[in-house]
Amino acid sequence: MVSAATFLLFALSAALFSAVNERALRHSRSQLELLVELGAELERALRHDDVVATLVRHSCARLGFNRAVVLVRTGKVWEGVRDDGAVVVRLHSPDRPAPLVHAAWASGTPMLVRVVDDDLLDLVLPNAQNVVVAPVAVDGEDLGIAVAEWGGGADARIPTSTVQSLAQASMHTALALRNARLLDEIERLATRDSLTGLANRRLFDESLRREAARSQRLGSPLSLLVLDVDHFKQVNDSYGHQTGDDVLCEVADALVANTKNFDVAARYGGDEFVVLLPGCSREDAIGVAQRVRNEIARQVGEAPVTISGGIATMPDNAADAERLMAAADAALYEAKRTGRDRVASSGRGLEMAPPPVLSWSAPLARGA
């Protein structure tokens, strides 16, 4: 009788243990599948923002959080993405006190908090309750923070496996984020001028071909402004090469300040700069050139310099990228030939030979 009861109890325990193990295995397999899916998405996300957005979507769509935000600090600002369950919002927030963030970084593990008491997190995820704060870090490098709200009131419980899954996802995201940063840096070095930070000649040439083809296809204007620092060799000889470099950087800053985000300002070589102005007519390009000259006169203070420039526009002055560059160069040559410290605009016509020009000259105030 006792032996039969013992055997029955053992059989029931074994069956129960087997069922529990099976559920645990199914759950572990499910979590592993989710992590594999996340890894595949992270491999396709080459850009910094795409990597961050991938973790945000994973937190809400797969792990079951009501809201999630992932932040990465760049300089003195936080940039990131938030998912409210219905809409994804890209964020740009100033740096501010963030004790929970720093505590999570210090511990290296996820933190569970009932109510967010943190200026930064309350700003990007207001009135959040039952929150997991997970560091996005790899090899001791703190890259960002993942914050996910479970919600559900004071009695809600976040499953331990869900917290662990968010921690694993954050770690994988940190690896992808570091790789994305390396790719961004490689691309920056390949396409940016090391001194001024402007686009280099390679990126400009690619942009010129692309925008010229678009101008031909859509029939929209495309203007090109070519600028040259007058007598730049004398600046180097009189003030030294360091001052010459500072002048070039100030010229570059003036170009950036007076052009739009979709314009392409580049250092073409030495003391020569170019600005590609998509959708900009000849008359508007003249206005841009004047603003640039005025800004250079106001900002450049390392040495007294003047600027000469040439303007050409598709389709008025050229039919393709090569002729547009030739026409702008010819206009620059005319500006220098007629006295420098001025901008010349290419005349109308599609010929390859240097076209006639219209020019104007205005005093350019010298720097201090």
Overall description:
β2 and β3 (88-94) form a beta hairpin. A 6-stranded antiparallel β-sheet has the order 3-2-1-6-5-4, with helices on both faces. Strands 8-9-7-10-11-12 form a 6-stranded mixed β-sheet, sandwiched between helices. It starts with a helix and ends in a 7-residue tail after the last strand. The protein has helices at residues 2-44, 48-61, 99-107, 119-124, 160-191, 201-218, 232-239, 241-257, 282-299, 321-337, and strands spanning 67-74, 77-83, 88-94, 111-115, 129-138, 141-149, 222-229, 264-269, 272-278, 307-314, 342-346, 357-361. Mean pLDDT is 82; it is low at 348-368. It has 368 residues and is α+β, with helices and mostly antiparallel strands.
Characteristic key phrases:
368 residues; alpha+beta; six-stranded antiparallel sheet; six-stranded mixed sheet; 23% strand; elongated; disordered C terminus
SSE layout and pairing:
Elements: H1 2-44, H2 48-61, E1 67-74, E2 77-83, E3 88-94, H3 99-107, E4 111-115, H4 119-124, E5 129-138, E6 141-149, H5 160-191, H6 201-218, E7 222-229, H7 232-239, H8 241-257, E8 264-269, E9 272-278, H9 282-299, E10 307-314, H10 321-337, E11 342-346, E12 357-361
Parallel strand pairs: 10-11
Antiparallel strand pairs: 1-2, 1-6, 2-3, 4-5, 5-6, 7-9, 7-10, 8-9, 11-12
Helix pairs in contact: 1-5, 2-5, 7-8, 8-9
